[in-house]
Design brief:
The chain has 336 residues and is of the alpha/beta class. It has nine helices and 15 strands. The strands form three sheets. The protein has a six-stranded mixed sheet with strand order 3-2-1-4-8-7, sandwiched between helices. Strands 6-13-12-11-14-15 form a six-stranded mixed sheet, sandwiched between helices. A three-stranded mixed sheet has the order 5-9-10, with no helix packed on it. The longest helix is centred in the C-terminal third of the chain and has 25 residues.
């Protein structure tokens, strides 16, 4: 079964398992659930209080269940297929905590932190568990594997040696600085989480409309741009209160106000990049934030030095990174 690899992306709030054919890196099949590391860890703690399984076995049992589902879905025997796991599985609430790798971090994955677990009679799969990366003030797990994958793509290979900032929007957005073939620094921005808190649990909650939207009206786009511009004019703490006065004074409707708040926060995240003129920018977003970040970059006049990566490429980047790290680590293991 050395022609195949199981690639698992296990984040805080989601789980994705894919079977990969190594000869052409094609995805043969996959399963996806909302059983992220946080929920599995909480379930294990409750189970342990009742005298249940130890942590390692509990997580392996969950993996076995998902592998069985994928095996049945494909009518394919997956025993003895190695698993590569990235994301939060190597964190303090994961399968086993693995120390972070320090910067600088080669973007070819050759120095990725990992731990190898041999197959057992009750779990017939070798495991490579990939760790995250740390700086003096910041940490991440998972995005560095995506970065390794992105930089295997022909169109992006040149960015390995350039001065570039890779922007990964999300609940906790990451800005990753690449130079001379290494990840040399990164910053985390709590943009998505602050938006959720302010729009659902603060005095602003009655001033914005809730719910997801896939299309934007012209009024909403203009409100978002207004928020982007305002983000550079005054303190973010003062600007956010305008969300309330916009609604009180009928300046913006609740739906537009939602985008004004989003513009304030995204503008606050991206605004400093205007001064980083020596860096090219790479926008990496496969979710519904892509259009908003693209608009924000345009409004801040950053688009001329920004490369955008399509959603389908982002979706495949994690697998490409896992394969690259697997190939690098198995070479090391074979030399031991």
């Amino acid at each position: 079964m050395k022609n195949y690899l199981l690639c698992c992306d296990w984040g805080t709030s989601s789980f994705r398992l894919r079977l990969i054919k190594l000869s052409d890196s094609q995805i043969v099949g996959e399963v996806f659930t909302d059983d992220g590391i946080a929920s599995i860890f909480n379930s294990w703690k409750k189970n342990l209080e009742l005298g249940g399984l130890n942590r390692d076995q509990f997580f392996r049992n969950y993996l076995t269940g998902q592998i069985d589902i994928l095996s049945a879905q494909l009518s394919f025997d997956l025993q003895m297929v190695m698993i590569v796991i990235s994301g939060m599985a190597s964190s303090s609430i994961g399968m086993e905590e693995i120390p972070y790798t320090n910067l600088p971090y080669p973007v070819d994955g050759s120095q990725a932190g990992m731990r190898y677990f041999e197959a057992r009679s009750d779990f017939p799969h070798d495991i490579i568990l990939i760790s995250g990366v740390r700086s003096e003030t910041d940490v991440m797990r998972g995005e560095e594997t995506q970065l390794v994958g992105l930089l295997t793509i022909n169109e992006l290979l040149s960015f390995r040696e350039k001065e570039a900032v890779f922007i990964f929007p999300g609940t906790h957005s990451k800005h990753m600085y690449v130079s001379g073939g290494n990840l040399v620094g990164f910053q985390t921005f709590m943009t998505g989480e602050v938006f959720k808190i302010m729009s659902n649990h603060s005095i602003l909650k009655d001033s914005v409309e809730h719910g997801k939207q896939t299309e934007f009206r012209e009024q909403e786009i203009e409100a978002f741009k207004l928020g982007i511009r305002q983000s550079g004019r005054s303190s973010i703490l003062n600007s956010m209160f305008r969300v309330r006065t916009n609604q009180l004074f009928n300046t913006l409707g609740k739906r537009e106000n939602k985008y004004y708040l989003s513009g304030l926060l995204i503008g606050n995240e991206l605004g400093y990049l205007a001064k980083k003129e020596e860096y090219e920018l790479v926008l990496c977003s496969g979710n519904n934030l892509y259009e908003l970040y693209k608009l924000g970059i345009e409004e801040l006049n950053l688009n001329e030095r920004t490369t955008t990566v399509s959603a389908d490429v982002i979706d495949k980047a994690t697998v490409a990174g896992q394969i690259k790290i697997y190939q690098s680590q198995t070479l090391k293991l074979n030399k031991i």
